[in-house]
Amino acid sequence: xxxxxxxxxxxxxxxxxxxxxxxxxxxxxxxxxxxxxxxxxxxxxxxxxxxxxxxxxxxxxxxxxxxxxxxxxxxxxxxxxxxxxxxxxxxxxxxxxxxxxxxxxxxxxxxxx
Amino acid sequence: xxxxxxxxxxxxxxxxxxxxxxxxxxxxxxxxxxxxxxxxxxxxxxxxxxxxxxxxxxxxxxxxxxxxxxxxxxxxxxxxxxxxxxxxxxxxxxxxxxxxxxxxxxxxxxxxxx
Lengths: 113, 114
Known about the structure:
The complex is a heterodimer of chains A (about 110) and B (about 110). With about 110 residues, chain A is mainly beta.
């Protein structure tokens, strides 16, 4: 079975500071990994995904994530937070041979001026 | 030119009623999904259809019945609504030739059961 754990249900950062959202997965095989963002009262939008090519993945809006197999992690970072980054962020995992996308519990990001 | 659309956006109804939520995608994708997001924002897949065929059916009460008239549409019918059905329901679609394919989500339908 595959599962995803996001450490910290809420993260508060100052505008201009580093954003770091943690995601760890458990899977019997190396999975594919996704980060989605959900702005208030909207659907989910893909930020980036790991598809077993480069381990450092760049996404939209200045976000990037690094796949670390040894740590079973796929943490999301952005060097400088912007007010518009305030949203809920979801890490998700999918097995190579499977079909189901399994989501973590989400991390709400609050950006302080 | 919305990619994945859902109607209605909000649905308020009484316990025991039957209601439907509609979903349409214009991306030409083969696979569509229904997800439920509870009040704690936890997202869980309910169903998935590929070319009108049910391929994922999670542990969901049989009061929930998906219907796919064609591969661009996936509707969700809920019978005998209960308080615990209150949630946001998201439709999604993907090309699904590859597990790396991105799923595109609709804006959600907020269902409130009174």
